Amino acid sequence: MNCEQIRELLAGYQDGELDGAQHEMVSGHLEECADCRAELAQLDKVKEVTGKVKYNDLPLEVWEGYWQGIYRRIERGLGWIFASVGAVIMLITGAYYLVKDYFMDPAVALFPKIGVGALIIGGGFLLVSVGRERIFAHNRDRYKEVQR
């Protein structure tokens, strides 16, 4: 392989991502080629420097101000409203086409229709049950006002 092909594999070699044959090929080339060894040394320096980069976390006061801000609350509220309206529209449309194209189709046997209907009704009951349980638990959470 030539140096250009080896340079394309150096990052994978450095990270241990090459298969055995590629690793051996790059290792053999690096023993013979000083330019590619220098390129690998530069990649090692870049990896070392980028490994030391840390993101500074914002102070807790800044985050508390953000979470209490009116803009964030309005933005989140509008997002939930639009998502809920879209979900309701999609569910109604899906239910309409399910009834129209599946349950009203005389070519579909009665037994599968009963099975699908039971599955939908059971899933609906389970969804409502889990939702009610989560609301019940949330309303009775003694620790929801505790600051971290």
Account of the 3D structure:
This protein has six helices and no strands. It is mainly alpha-helical. It folds into three domains: 3-52, no CATH class; 56-104; 109-148. Helix 1 packs across helix 2, helix 1 (3-15) packs parallel to helix 3 (34-52) and helix 2 packs across helix 3. The mean pLDDT is 88.
Radius of gyration: 30 Å
Series of H and E elements: HHHHHH
Proportion of residues in helical segments = over 70%
| Silhouette | flat
Give the averaged pLDDT, no decimals.
88
Mind describing the biggest β-sheet? none
Q: How many domains comprise the coordinates?
A: 3
Number of helices, where a helix is a run of at least 4 consecutive DSSP H or I residues: 6
Distance between the termini: 57 Å
Structural class based on helices, strands and sheet pairing: mainly alpha
Q: Which stretches of 5+ consecutive residues score pLDDT under 50?
A: none
What's the count of strands? 0
Q: Strand portion, in percent?
A: under 5%
Summarize the model shown:
Helix content is 80%, strand content 0%. It has 148 residues and is mainly alpha-helical. It folds into 3 domains: 50 residues, no CATH class; 49 residues; 40 residues.
